[in-house]
Design brief:
Blueprint (H helix, E strand, L loop, with lengths): L1 H79 L4 H14 L4 H11 L2 H28 L12 H27 L1
Helix pairs in contact: 1-2, 1-3, 1-4, 1-5, 4-5
C-alpha cells in the first residue's frame, strides 16, 4: 500500500511540475505576443499621427501657395498698368488677411514631419518667390514713379515667368508632401 501511495504522490508531483512548466511557457508566449502587439500598436498610432500632420501640412501649404499665386497675379496686374499702386497695396493686404495661410504652423510641421525631399522642394518655392519679389520691387518702384536702375532688364514675359515658376514649384511641393503622406 505504501508503494501505491508513493506512486500517487510522485504522479501528482510530476503532474504539478508539468502543469507549472506549461503555465510558465504559456505566460512567456503571451508576454512575447503582447510585446509585439504593443509595438505594432505604437507603430500604427505613430504612422497615423504622422499622416494626419502631413495632411495638415498639405492643407496649409496649399493655402500658402494659393496666396502666393494670388499675390503674384496682383503684381502682374500692377506691371500691366491694370492697377495703380494704391489698389495694388489694398489687394495685397486683403489677400493676406483672407488667405487663411499660417506660415509659422506650416514651417513647424515642415521642420518636424517633412522628408528631406519635401524640404528641398520648399526651398525651391522660396527661391522662386524671392526671385519674383526682387522683380516686383522694381515694378512697385516704377508704379510709384521712383527711379529704377534696371528698367531695361524688366520685361513682362520674364516677370510673368517668375510668377509661373512660383506656381510650378508650389505644385511640385504639394506633390512631394502628398507622396510622403501616402508612403
Amino acid at each position: 500500500m505504501s508503494n501505491q501511495l508513493w506512486g500517487v504522490v510522485l504522479g501528482g508531483l510530476l503532474t504539478g511540475v508539468v502543469a507549472l512548466l506549461v503555465g510558465m511557457m504559456n505566460n512567456w508566449a503571451n508576454d512575447r505576443r503582447q510585446a509585439r502587439q504593443l509595438a505594432h500598436d505604437v507603430d500604427r498610432e505613430s504612422r497615423k499621427q504622422r499622416r494626419e500632420r502631413l495632411e495638415e501640412l498639405y492643407v496649409l501649404t496649399a493655402l500658402w501657395t494659393t496666396t502666393l499665386n494670388q499675390l503674384a497675379l496682383t503684381g502682374l496686374r500692377l506691371s500691366l498698368g491694370n492697377l495703380n499702386h494704391s489698389q495694388f497695396q489694398d489687394l495685397q493686404i486683403s489677400i493676406g488677411k483672407e488667405s487663411g495661410a499660417q506660415p509659422p504652423r506650416m514651417n513647424m510641421l515642415m521642420g518636424i514631419y517633412a522628408s528631406e525631399a519635401v524640404r528641398l522642394q520648399y526651398a525651391e518655392v522660396r527661391g522662386a518667390q524671392e526671385a519674383y519679389m526682387a522683380k516686383l520691387f522694381v515694378v512697385e518702384r516704377m508704379a510709384t514713379g521712383q527711379p529704377v536702375l534696371d528698367v531695361d532688364h524688366l520685361g513682362y514675359p520674364e516677370f510673368e515667368e517668375l510668377a509661373r515658376s512660383v506656381d510650378r514649384e508650389g505644385k511640385r511641393l504639394l506633390d512631394q508632401i502628398a507622396a510622403q503622406a501616402l508612403a
